[in-house]
Amino acid sequence: MATKKKNGDELMQEALEEEHRIRKAFKDKNWSEIKSSDSWVIFKVMSEFVEGFEKMAKIGPCVTIFGSARVKPNNPYYKMAEDIAERLVQQGYGVITGGGPGIMEAGNKGANKAGGKSVGLNIYLPHEQKGNIYIDADKLITFDYFFVRKVMFVKYSQGFIVMPGGFGTLDELSEALTLIQTKKIGRFPIVLVGKKFWEGMIDWIKETLVVEKMVHEEDLDLFNLVDTPEEAVAVIDDFYGKFLLSPNF
Questions:
Q1: In sequence order, what are the beta bridge partners of 160?
Q2: CATH no. for 60-241
Q3: Could you tell me the residue ranges of all domains in the chain?
Q4: What confidence tens digit (pLDDT) does each residue in 83-92 have?
Q5: 3-class DSSP state for residue 138?
Q6: SS3 of residue 65 by DSSP
Q7: How far, rounded to the nearest angstrom, does the alpha carbon of residue 150 sit from its chain's CA centroid?
C-alpha cells in the first residue's frame, strides 16, 4: 500500500507541475519581465553554441550513432552499436553519441575500446541524464537546449548511424532527412540499422507518404537500410570513396 500511495503522490506532483507550466505559458508578462527573461535565454543559447563550436571544431571526421537510451548491455542492438563504433574507429573515424546510456553508451564504449575519439553531446533532462563513462573527458558537452545540440550533431558528423530507438531517435533522423531533402545542408550518408525494426516505417513512407505525394519516391534514396555492422560501416566508406575521400580529409 505504501508503494501505491507514493506512486500516486508522485503522479499528482507531476500533474501539478505540468499544470503550472501550462498556466505559466498563458500568463501575461510586462515588457520588463519579457526583456529580462528573453535576454537571459539568448545569452545562454549563445554560450552553448560557443562552447560547442570551440570543442567540436577540433575533433576531426566523426560519425554519429543514434539509438535508444533504454537498451541494456545484453541487448543485441547494444552489442551491434558497440561493434559498429569499433569498426568506425578502425576505419579512421571518431564516434559521436548523445552521451547517455543504452545505444549511446554502446557507441562510446566501442570507440573507447578501439582507441578512437569518443564524443558525448549530453542533454539535461527532468530525470537527469549523466554522461556515460566511455566518453573522452575533454569531449563531453552537456546542453540545456535540444536545438543547439542538434546543430552540433549535424554540423560535425560525416554520417549518421541510426539504431533502433524512440521519439528522440526519430526526431534526429527526421531532422537530418529534412535538411538534406531541402538542401539546407550537403548530402551525407544516413544508415538505418535493423531491417526488422525499420521496415514497417519504410513501408509506411512508401505506401502512404509517396502515394499521397507528401514526399518524392527519390527521397527514399536519402537513407540506407542494413542489417549488420559490416554493412553499416561499408555504406559510410563507399559514400566517401566516390569522392576519393578518407577520414583524414
A1: 64, 190
A2: 3.40.50.450
A3: 2-46, 60-241
A4: 999 999 999 9
A5: helix
A6: strand
A7: 7
